[in-house]
């Protein structure tokens, strides 16, 4: 008997993860660096190599013959109907315009389906994570950037140009005048992403050092540990009671919470699932997020749940594999 088997792949700007999915079980997961600076062809070659390695390992350990196919969640705006990268950021130079289905089918000899990586996360959480069993859900990935994926009745909303889900690019009063990585200003990602929160902290430090800063607002700050150099270090400073770090996370969390409340009033999902690096924080981030979210809800949407993602980085792999489920189709 030939069993359907999928190599699920998550392609990001810094690493590529892949694993086998047979009978719904994720296994043989491996991770390799993304050769981003070497261009799209090098990235495609690496995907093909790690895919072949997963197939070889899984075939050797799994009794019985399998018919393999590939499901991919990839960075960039992806047209799932054609498998083409519509647009991409500078984290993957030359990625835009790449025909992933044609290129990887030629390299592997296997059928390929592809979707955006955050959309894959949404599919994964809906299939086996925090939003399983719901009819509608919004997955929000909050970390280096802020993205999203909306699912209703088992269908992924992709929208015109496959661009649906750019949660980080809704306007936010808290981000007024702040530059966003997309080239615009005033978007919630400019104040609520991990790097943006770190930038807020640095602005607060600069302001507090001025002669006009409030007395005792940073008491003992100059005697504190060296300034945090990344979001993880900033989170540690907040947990240790650093007043400005706590304020920076509060500002970012409230901005995102307000944005999600507004989006909930538009889409009215059963649940909003929040994943990504920021979601791993404690109540320093979650408490103001929930408070600001609840404050924006109208009575009709007041029952919308805001919960933490369950699958972590495996969500994209589970979601990529689900592209081969007969019932899974995207909604324009």
TrEMBL record:
Keywords: Kinase, Transferase. Residues 207-226 are annotated as: Disordered. InterPro entries: ATPase_NBD (IPR043129), ROK (IPR000600). Its EC number is 2.7.1.2. SUPFAM superfamilies: Actin-like ATPase domain. Residues 207-216 have a biased composition (Polar residues). One of its GO terms (molecular function) is glucokinase activity. Signal peptide: none annotated. It holds the Pfam family ROK. Belongs to the ROK (NagC/XylR) family. This is Glucokinase. It comes from Brevibacterium linens.
């Amino acid at each position: 008997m030939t069993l359907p088997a999928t190599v699920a792949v998550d392609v990001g700007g810094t690493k590529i993860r892949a694993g086998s999915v047979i009978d719904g079980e994720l296994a043989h997961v491996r991770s390799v660096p993304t050769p981003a600076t070497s261009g799209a062809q090098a990235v495609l070659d690496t995907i093909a190599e790690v895919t072949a390695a997963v197939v070889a390992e899984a075939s050797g350990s799994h009794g019985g013959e399998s018919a393999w196919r590939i499901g991919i969640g990839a960075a960039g705006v992806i047209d799932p109907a054609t498998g083409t990268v519509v647009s991409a950021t500078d984290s993957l130079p030359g990625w835009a315009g790449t025909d992933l289905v044609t290129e990887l089918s030629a390299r592997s000899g296997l059928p390929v389906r592809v979707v955006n990586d955050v959309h894959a996360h949404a599919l994964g959480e809906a299939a086996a994570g925090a939003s399983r069993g719901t009819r509608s859900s919004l997955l929000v990935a909050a970390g280096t950037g802020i993205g999203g994926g909306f699912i209703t009745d088992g269908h992924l909303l992709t929208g015109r140009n496959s661009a649906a889900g750019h949660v980080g690019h809704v306007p936010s009063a808290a981000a007024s005048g702040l530059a966003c990585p997309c080239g615009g200003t005033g978007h919630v990602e400019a104040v609520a992403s991990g790097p943006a929160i770190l930038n807020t902290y640095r602005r607060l430090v600069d302001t507090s050092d001025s002669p006009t800063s409030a007395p005792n607002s940073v008491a003992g700050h100059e005697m504190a540990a060296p300034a945090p150099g990344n979001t993880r270090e900033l989170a540690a400073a907040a947990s240790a009671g650093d007043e400005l770090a706590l304020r920076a996370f509060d500002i970012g969390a409230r901005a995102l919470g307000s944005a999600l409340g507004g989006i909930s009033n538009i889409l009215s999902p059963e649940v909003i699932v929040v994943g990504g690096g920021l979601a791993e924080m404690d109540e320093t981030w979650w408490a103001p997020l929930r408070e600001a979210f609840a404050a924006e809800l109208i009575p009709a949407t007041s029952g919308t749940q805001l919960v933490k993602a369950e699958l972590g980085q495996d969500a994209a792999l589970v979601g990529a594999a689900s592209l081969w489920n007969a019932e899974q189709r995207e909604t324009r």
